[in-house]
From TrEMBL:
Annotated Thioredoxin-like fold domain residues: 61-231
Keyword Transcription belongs to the record: no
Signal peptide coordinates: none
Family: Belongs to the thioredoxin family. DsbA subfamily.
Organism of derivation: Cohnella xylanilytica
One term of GO molecular function: oxidoreductase activity
Membrane-spanning parts: 27-46
Descriptive protein name: Thioredoxin domain-containing protein
InterPro entries: Thioredoxin-like_fold (IPR012336), Thioredoxin-like_sf (IPR036249)
Keywords for this protein: Disulfide bond, Membrane, Oxidoreductase, Redox-active center, Signal, Transmembrane, Transmembrane helix
Gene3D superfamilies found in the cross-reference section: Glutaredoxin
Length: 242
């Protein structure tokens, strides 16, 4: 009888020990989970804010007032379909509401990542900019309007790029434009802009910045959200809007 009682007591003791072990394990798991979540939250909350990207606005194509306190920059590729969408669908609204009213400026920099002839399109745009700054945005618009659907095929040839300028009546020397593309006259400028974009790990095109701070695609490619970001920047800069 005593032997049976001892077995029962030992069994109960083992069960109690197992339950205590399970309880300690659960507590450890929950504690670890709470600490992990707290660490993630701390990283998100206290993550250092990225320093604004330094852009030499005086030496890149810029639309709008040079004195605007809110400056938008687009890093784009003339062969990029999403850049085309930004240019043809969002930019006209931004221009009407913010740029033409003197509140905001827009600058363009090349980020040639789509295909090998993206570089030729960038060289053409730089040539137009240096020949006649007032004609740059007409050419910018024309290149996006006449963008070909074959994203990963060569079509932005010197001949095509020169003909776009000629057919649109862009006021530049067409022979010089073609020569600038073929001779890579402004390759150093294109390379410098690409280097800047890569150094900041820009994920693709278009990459849109407001006062040097990069927007995610959700805000850069949605008109209402883009306007909200611009309004926020204007408020931070103490710019009065009507």
């Amino acid at each position: 009888m005593q032997k049976s009682q001892r077995k029962a007591e030992n069994r109960q003791l083992r069960q109690k020990q197992q339950e205590q072990k399970k309880r300690r394990t659960r507590i450890l798991v929950w504690t670890t989970a709470v600490v992990f979540v707290a660490l993630i939250a701390a990283v998100i909350i206290f993550k250092p804010k990225e320093a604004p990207v330094a852009i030499d606005y005086d030496n890149v194509p810029t639309m709008g007032s040079a004195d605007a306190k809110v400056k938008i920059a687009e890093f784009g590729d003339f062969k990029c379909p999403t850049c085309q969408y930004f240019s043809l669908n969002l930019l006209p609204e931004i221009k009407k509401d913010y740029i033409d009213t003197g509140l905001v400026s827009l600058s363009f920099l090349n980020y040639t990542i789509i295909w090998q002839d993206s570089n030729d399109a960038a060289l053409a745009a730089q040539s137009v900019y240096h020949q006649n700054k007032d004609e740059f945005w007409k050419y910018y618009d024309a290149l996006y309007r006449k963008q070909q659907p074959q994203e990963h095929e060569v079509w932005a040839t010197p001949e095509f790029l020169t003909e776009v300028a000629r057919s649109e009546g862009i006021k530049v020397d067409y022979d010089k434009l073609k020569a600038d593309i073929e001779n890579k006259t402004y390759q150093d400028e294109v390379d410098a802009q690409n280097k800047l974009a890569r150094s900041k790990n820009f994920p693709g095109t278009p990459t849109v910045l407001i006062n040097g701070e990069r927007l995610d695609d959700e805000h850069a490619l949605n008109l209402d959200k883009l306007k909200a970001k611009i309004d926020e920047a204007l408020k931070e800069a103490n710019v009065e809007t009507k």
